[in-house]
Amino acid sequence: MNARIPSLLAAALGAALWGAPAAGQDDPGDIVAAGESLAACTRAAEAGDQAAAAEAADDAKAGFEAGQAARPDDPAPQVGLASVLLRCRIPFAPFMEQGAISARAGEILRAALELDPSHWEARYLLALNYYHNPEFLGLTGDAIREFETLLEQQGDRTDFPEMAGPYAWLGDLYLRVGRSEDARAVWERGAALFPSDERLAERLGGAAPEGAGEGAEGPPASGDAAARTIDHQAEPLVVIVDAGYAMDDTRPQATLSKVDVYMAPGGTADILQVFQMLPGVTRASEGSDLFVRGGDPAEAPIFVEGARLLYPGVFETLHGGIFGILDPAVLRRAYFSSGGFSARWGNALSGVVDLETDGAPTVAGGRLGMNFVGGGATYRSPVGGRAGFWTSVRATDTSLLLAIQDQADDYPSTPRSIEGVVGATFAPRRGVELKALALAEGDGAARDVDAIGWRGPFESRGRTALALVSGRLLTPDAGAALRATASWTRRSTGFEFGVLDRERIDERIEVRVTGDLGAHASRQLRAGVDAAALHAREDGRVPTTERVEPGSPFETLDGSRDETSHLGAFVEAEIRPLPPLALVVGARVDRLPGEDETTLDPRMAIAWREGDWTWRVAGGTFQQGRWRVGYELPDGGVPAGIPRRARHLAFGVEREGRPAVRVETFVKTYDRYVPEEDALEVERGRVSGVDALVQWPQTDRWGGWVAYSLLRGRVDLVDGGTVPSEVDVTHSLTAVATRTIGAWQIGTTARYATGRPYTPAVGAIRDGGFPEPVYGERMSRRLPDYVRLDGRLTRFQRIGGRFTVFYLEALNVLDRANASGIVYDADWKNARFVDSFFAERTLVAGAEIDL
Asked: Which fold has domain 635-851?
């Protein structure tokens, strides 16, 4: 559905005159009391206060339900119930729930009109509900019919100012269907009756709302109605915060909505794949791993409800995972930082992803989806008035896709996976929320791949489990907040490839507590502690050279159990000495995993806001431990090592509006490296660059963004010399565009990236055993540049009253075999590139339906 639906509905429906006298009616006393609660929840929704809005909405709902039971023939309570849904629930509802809320409100309003076909508020709300649904849902005719009926009933009456509204909206609808003369006629008729109405004057002056003839969004309300308009944007899902005006503020203008994740061509409805389309993330691989500003994926941890995932990918290989483990259907929002992030995050050098799952649903509903590679389903249900649960399951089986692509022979074992997640939320009173979450995933695959002079099946299997409980406490004045999370997570990974036969199991038990004081004051204080215990066990064998064919040297793992811990604390203050100025100063103290010493990380950010522009500068020290979950084959030609400290300095400027613009330049230095065996040892490193984003928020017609990153990464080697880093991708460019035409949407994503550097092998030497490579100039060559074009064709339709989406997605339209690496024959000669995962043109067709 359109990302703007929630804000449009709330804005327009907030203008409906609850409390204004309906034609010829007086409201009973108890209905007036419920109306006061409705007004309170509307004000809270306008202010973005979800807790207050929910409490007032519950009171209003209870009052209207009591009124309905006492007076079943009175339509007023039903109009009130619909108003609660549209004015107080939609602004905070998860994306997948918003359509169900709109549909439920429509049912209630139609029932009210059966009791009294002349009830003005009921028909106005129903007409607006139809009006602000996207044109592709086929409700334009219903909206025209309801507004025409409303104007016929009104006649020439001018009882109250909002009676001008139907004239404005009906004219917009006439334009939408090409009836321009009728549009002007209805505006002129309305202007004659309401000469002071700004909306009608604007339209007759030639300034009809943008796009009114093609999926109009409509203007804001005016006059007294504007004071009640809800201007709440669609709940942000992906938030780009590079240095933070308030570093915990997840509401900048450069955001992506959940619909962007679902609909981004080539994003495969995968939040991590979509993150890779943003500035600050280097196009270093085609999988789901995030290489943030020249760092490796371990430097950008991913948190779910405050719990750190051990690994967030599915179908893990030696080059990372192919897809992300996280289903966007159950996510409420995500915070992504590519540098200069808050002191609340420790054991991270380059970036942070913090994901929050959905809260308690307000209406029951679900979704079902199927495509060439699998399917999924989601179900949500409230429990009583203060609790609810949701569950989602996804399964992947690529057998059909591989058969269609004629690639089945390359896979001795077809890639398959299954993932399930369930969440429950309980809010016993205002300001208190308790949440429980459980997630389980399993996957496996085998593909024939090339190594050094040997071709064989690479088998991988992965298992992930996560369980957590969290609680939030907010004081009545919203001046203080406390959040606590306790979690357990487990990850097992198995690789089999020649002599490589490794199985590793990791477990993490963690407790995290954070508090905030003065959330709405000019001075704020944030502090917290986190503690984690980590355990790992490895079994099997691993190669000791760069060769993996049977008979190559290997080392047997003894299955011993390793353990470590992490203990950290932070404090952070935000001061606003002047309205446009914010200063954030913080520090962390940690004993990091695998380390014995205690570290201290100071961090600071300054921001100045002038009109639509905000300037930011941020910097600080960031440290991580040497503990690692992943594994890489030995490679003596690649600079390697684990940096334990990075220092960031970033300067950025952001402009709000359409389009939104964000540009940031940065410098980052690395040191305190832990060397890796059989690799070029690094002493220090540095990365500098520029990240830029221009974003057009999705409308009924079109949307998209252009992201660009310029990066230069260099490392100084212990034995002398300076060479490009392994992820020195100079240019990364992504352009995403979608165009909606009626019930169809066409989208495309174009990506370009400079090839990654590598050290060429120029021959081999034998010393009584296997040939050993002789390397040329270090990191002197690059893989071919990465170029990929994806497309998506989507059809929106209502079938049996249910919203349905049909889509055909084309990945790698140009059929370009991008390279992910390079291999040689047994004598380290005859180099050839290894194709990436989506090396061939791939077509995926599917459908989703709301239940």
From this structure: Maltoporin; Chain A (2.40.170)
